[in-house]
Amino acid sequence: MANVVEIKSAKIVPFTLMSSSISAILAFIYGIIMAIILGITVAFLPAPLGGLLAGLGVALVIAYPILTFLVGLSVIFLSVLLYNLLVPRVGGIKLAMEENSVAAIPIVPFALILSIIGAIWAFIIGLILATAIAPITGLIGTALPLIGNATNTTITGSMFGAGTAFLYLFLIIGLPIIAFIFGFIYNALFAIFYNYIAVRAAKIQLNFAVVTGAWNDLTSIPIIPASLALAIVSAIFGLIQGILNLGSAGVGGLIGNIVGGFTGTFIVVAIGTWLYNFLAPRIGAVKLELE
Could you tell me the pTM of the whole model? Predict the structure, then answer.
């Protein structure tokens, strides 16, 4: 019988360091692959364009992983902080465990907290965008009456101001609402597909070691079960996307979405879990408070 546990909180620094490190290494691998592709392409291009692509390849190998790591530090740090703050108010992610296997993911708690975090990020991004465009819209609003008089058009500053106000409202209010709705739907479907389809082939396994009280170290993640389960879920999403695009992409696009979703996710998750198992004893495992 499954034992339902709730992730009450996570230690921010170990989680952030581990996730950012894995993301940076994956970005480094991606950069190497793209650099090789660009290197092959350079051989068939004129010298100036070839040199530009060669420089881009070097940037992908060096700058892209560093940028990914630095961005990951801030994004993951804030996301885990938001999770810890939200759990007492809306509840945390729950997992139905059978020994070390995730037998099911209770749908509503999983979808709710992740969609709220996504909505908060949408609000932050919308606020940044609104702040960034405010000087530009202010300048345009000031210049519009002069332009209207010079060109004899009906566009007025008040009309532009109304449009700008609508844009601000959309960025600060509408965007978070949309992010919450679509995030909730996506995460709920993820849990449904995992619970009723993926677990029939493989269940994600999480090996914990009790540290003290309710705190546990996630010591390792068996590679094949996690990769297979998540690849199946990704393939189902690919099937849905392929069906929606069937009119434009055809059957080939449908098959490509399914195979690409399964294969790509399997490879990325396999590398990511291997990296986690390799890094955990060296930089510290993720620490979760389970109840």
Answer: 0.90
